[in-house]
Specification:
The chain has 12 helices and 7 strands. By secondary structure, it is of the alpha/beta class.
Length: 327
């Protein structure tokens, strides 16, 4: 179990303890207000024990089991009638942060959907992205920051270029979960690639999808730490790599700024290839142009990327300078 998974389990235990203490207080108040409900609860508890003993020791005939079931159903119906419409008429599951798994992290023997979201939130916490999403999202995007002047070499304006990227981003979000699409955003620094990644991330997180964002140096540093810096079970490479391959969307920002080694190139191929095989979307952003990407990475990676990713070029002036200095 990794450190982040342990944190999530501790959070569940804390939330579950809080819910159970609130429920215990509610139960005491309910019993005090309606003493008959306490009698019913005590009887239901004893009926459950009788049924368990019958199964264990074979003492219950079919008729006896049916009698226990009938009495239990009648008591539950009476209990519901006594509570209905009163101050205590509230579903007990509402006391938990997740009413589905009741803050256990598991539902019907499988991980609850909330478990993946909690774990993803931990990754966001450590990547320092949570605060950014409030500022960088579809609602705060301003296309007026891009020049409408047409480049004579390409016949397209920076605004036209970003509009194409923007349209593809909206289409990506709209079809997410149904269409399998990957994006490669490339162009010089400061043109809005990371901003667009953040817009997509926030939109999908708000819709309940899991997203892992990491800059390329962060990603490979975490993989390297998990592989080579194990202390007890603090780092679990298998679990971390599993999250990278199984999260609904993986965003690798600033590809090419990592220290390039045989190990990082191999890990990059494994991550991309695993996600392609499982048809889970990936977004990669880089300041390199296509020839530079070809020169830096192996043919295996470039063929997988260019053959399976929608490639979007960014062009224009540095938007961050415009925002900072109003130019």
């Amino acid at each position: 179990m990794s450190a982040l998974t342990r944190e999530v389990m501790k959070d569940y235990a804390r939330d579950r303890d809080m819910a159970e203490r609130l429920l215990a207080g509610r139960r005491e108040a309910l019993w005090k207000a309606v003493p008959r409900i306490k009698d019913i609860d005590m009887r239901l508890s004893s009926l459950g024990l009788l049924a368990a003993q019958g199964i264990l020791y074979g003492e219950s005939a079919v008729q006896t089991a049916e009698e226990l079931a009938r009495e239990s159903a009648a008591l539950r119906e009476e209990r519901r009638a006594l509570i209905s419409g009163g101050a205590f008429d509230e579903d007990e599951s509402a006391f938990y942060t997740c009413p589905v798994c009741k803050d256990t992290g598991f539902n019907n023997g499988a991980q609850c959907a909330c478990f993946k979201r909690r774990l993803t939130d931990k990754f966001y916490k450590y990547s320092n992205l949570s605060g950014v999403l409030a500022k960088e999202n579809f609602d705060t995007f301003n296309i007026e920051m891009y020049s409408n002047e047409v480049d004579p070499n390409t016949g397209v304006s920076p605004r036209g270029v970003i509009n194409t990227a923007w349209t593809n981003a909206l289409k990506f979000v709209g079809g997410f979960g149904k269409d399998f699409v990957n994006l490669l955003l490339y162009g010089e620094t400061g043109l809005g690639k990371t901003f667009l990644c953040n817009c997509i991330a926030k939109e999908l997180l708000d819709r309940g999808f899991s997203v892992i964002y990491a800059t390329s140096p962060q990603l490979f540093k975490m993989v390297e730490k998990a592989r080579f810096d194990k202390k007890d079970d603090e780092s679990d490479i298998e679990e971390y790599l599993q999250m990278l391959t199984e999260t609904d969307l993986l965003i690798i920002d600033d590809l090419g700024t990592e220290m390039s080694t045989v190990v990082t190139v191999a890990e990059l191929f494994n991550i991309i290839n695993s996600r392609l095989i499982s048809r889970r979307s990936t977004i990669i952003s880089t300041n390199y142009d296509i020839p530079e990407i070809n020169a830096r990475y192996s043919d295996r990676i470039t063929s997988r990327v260019f053959g399976n990713f929608t490639v979007l070029k960014f062009a224009g002036d540095d938007i961050r300078i415009k925002i900072r200095y109003g130019k």
